[in-house]
Amino acid sequence: MKIFNSSQIRKADAYTIAHEPVTELKLMERAAEACAKWLEDEIPRETVFYIFCGSGNNGGDGLALARLLCHNGLSTHVFVGESNEQASEARSVNFQRLAEHPEIAVHQLEDAVELDFEANSVLVDALFGTGLNREIDGKYAELINFLNELPFRRISIDVPSGLFADRLIKENATVFTAHDTLSFQFWKQSFLHPETGAFCGNVHILDIGLHKNFVESEPSNRFVTDDAVIFQLYKPRSPFTHKGKLGKTRIIAGSYGKMGAAVLAVKAAVHCGSGLTVIEAPECGNEILQTSCPEAMFELNGDQYATAFLINENESVGVGPGLGTNPDTAKAFLKFLQDCTQPMVIDADALNIIASNPDSLKMIPKDSILTPHPKEFERLFGSTANSYERVDLAQKMAAELGVTIVLKDHFTQICLPDGSVYYNTTGNAGMAKGGSGDVLLGIITSLLAQKYEPAQAAIFGVWLHGKAGDFAMQKSSVEAMLPTDLISELGSVFKCLSEKKGQIH
Ligand SMILES: NC(=O)C1=CN([C@@H]2O[C@H](COP(=O)(O)OP(=O)(O)OC[C@H]3O[C@@H](n4cnc5c(N)ncnc54)[C@H](O)[C@@H]3O)[C@@H](O)[C@H]2O)[C@H](O)CC1
Ligand SMILES: [K+]
């Protein structure tokens, strides 16, 4: 799914109105219908809805929503500003149409502070959407601060009021803090970054039928990895295949005291479908690895830590977890990097060695995949003021070096050599635990061995890893789930994928 900025979203709106064709009023009605359906499906019927409406079309959505909810027998209050003079036509019509339902209580926005809210209230924010053009202040800020303190579920229409769709806000800016955001048609960039996404709660993207031709032809280099992307990437296994056709994965990982990282990476590679898997590690890991993962072959590269790396053609290499940064390991790794020509997956200590030897960035084979967390990214490419600047820098460096950079975050960003960025939305806070990254390296390397193109392996691998995390969370909890559980859940994720793909074709 493409990510558009607010001016592109306005264009999508206008294009749809002109070419479907459909009136602005009808489009607003569709948006309100989608929200009403979601609320009626998700929120108990005895709820009292308090809908706060601004003077723009976001407010118009709120007014239409109030009418639809009331029409369906739900208890509804609306709050509007003093004057409707500035309002768009569609918003004004929806204000007038409230008269169809005299049972809707209409209040002034400033009266909210005096109101006795029912115990089973839900607050709906339709104050500002993509038309916000400056930070919120004055009476709107007072109202939002008041609403944020009430002990009720808060739901935003399209965008939490106070957030811009496509840029950072000032620290301490006033924003409606939503538990859920019902947003139209597209993910907005601000939902995907920690500084702004924290205000959105759970994001639900509602289809309102904006014109396909516009969506297809309007350029964007930012995307969200959605189900359509994944179904296109996933290659179901042919019944006539054999292990020789499913690639050879080499995981180079582990040193004394950090052999768990190697275990996790190699097990993930095997569970992700690698035909043949080799774990290259120092002698101290031999017994541990052969016992914990008998499916993989062991090859020696040192005693307590790696001192020489083996190069084999026709293998996909994933290197770094638990490797350590002993000077001998660093020297051997840099030589290996210089001699290799095949794309490889580089993580953890291998990234730290590169960061300590900046000239080695140029030696990374083209199309390789780097999987830094924010701290590793900073060591490699320097610090940035915020996550928006960080993804811009990652996008630039990926294109400059001809590599894929997987910037690990709540919504991990996959920056491809062609300058595009994919945001991943699978995964959860239970994955913020030592060992998750080792599993990711194993998954991506395994996909690379199975002849997924490097960019595909990165996008698909990050999605799989997150989805396995979501399955693991359902069985356990964000606190208790383990990176090992991600490996165990890979099977269920593939099962689900192949069943769904079967339905589609
Ligand atoms: N694009 C779509 O797919 C659809 C969008 N819909 C809804 O429309 C809004 C966008 O509406 P718009 O009228 O452009 O903007 P807003 O409602 O967000 O508000 C603009 C309004 O507010 C004033 N304003 C802006 N910033 C401030 C501020 N800080 N303080 C006070 N006033 C401010 C501005 O001058 C305008 O007067 C979109 O989000 C959807 O909810 C359609 O209904 C369906 C299709
Ligand atoms: K809103």
TrEMBL record:
Binds 1 potassium ion per subunit. Residues 226-497 form the YjeF C-terminal domain. AMP binds at residues 408-412, 437. Its cofactor is K(+); Mg(2+). The keyword Protein biosynthesis does not apply. K(+) binds at residues 58, 125, 161. It catalyses: (6R)-NADPHX = (6S)-NADPHX; (6S)-NADHX + ADP = AMP + phosphate + NADH + H(+); (6S)-NADPHX + ADP = AMP + phosphate + NADPH + H(+); (6R)-NADHX = (6S)-NADHX. Keywords: ATP-binding, Isomerase, Lyase, Metal-binding, Multifunctional enzyme, NAD, NADP, Nucleotide-binding, Potassium. It comes from the Bacteria. Its EC number is 4.2.1.136, 5.1.99.6. HAMAP family: NADHX_dehydratase (MF_01965), NADHX_epimerase (MF_01966). This is Bifunctional NAD(P)H-hydrate repair enzyme. It comes from Kaistella pullorum.
